[in-house]
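Thread: Carbohydrate-binding protein, structure

OP (GT): Posting the sequence first so everyone is looking at the same thing. Length is 219 residues per the record. Can we get the structure tokens written out before standup tomorrow? I want them in the notebook alongside the other entries.
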Amino acid sequence: MYLVIQLEDAINQAFVFLTEKEYHLPIPFDEKRTSYSPKAFNGELHLLTARLATTEETAAYKNLAKNEYDHHGNTSLFPHASANVETRGEAVFAARNAINGNTVTYSHGGWPFESWGINQRDDAEFKVHFGRLVEIDKIVLYLRADFPHDNYWTNVTFTFSDDSKQTVELLKTGQAQSILLEPKKVEWITLGQMIKSDDSSPFPALTQFEVYGCEALDR
């Protein structure tokens, strides 16, 4: 089921795909709130909306990886991000941060500088699950760029659910880096085999992972 939801009025709307009858969003408290705007989940009056997506919204070319309402326990609302490591288990370094639509790259820490942190793991992997088949032709990465605190990856490899792989070179920048793909239908993408530069910092990180394409409807 394709939906457009806004479950907190201080967070943007999201186009999502629901695979079950229910989805639960835990209200974050204390440290868990640090990756959200301080205006979110605050105050005495809140507006929540959900509706079926229109045919035009469903068919549109868009960032298929964005979901502002993803969280660790999410198993029904896609896209969903996961990783084999998150720095110290802290909310500001969780995998979900890399698909929330926030592309502020020049610092690190609490909102709006949340990111996916790898805790200095050389074998770190990040995965986006779409929950259905989609047709994609472009990936856009935003590396965290709080230099000289941060390092960056010179090379990364994408592995796709169709068993294909693509290795690309990256630049030392916080600006968008676009990777064009041969159009392919996939259910998930993994980012891995990330080679850190020779810079002295041990802290490369990912601010945003975008995937562009369309629903694979009758394609």
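GT: Both are above now. Quick notes for whoever picks this up: The domain at 2-215 is CATH 2.60.120.260 (Jelly Rolls). The two ends are 18 Å apart (CA to CA).
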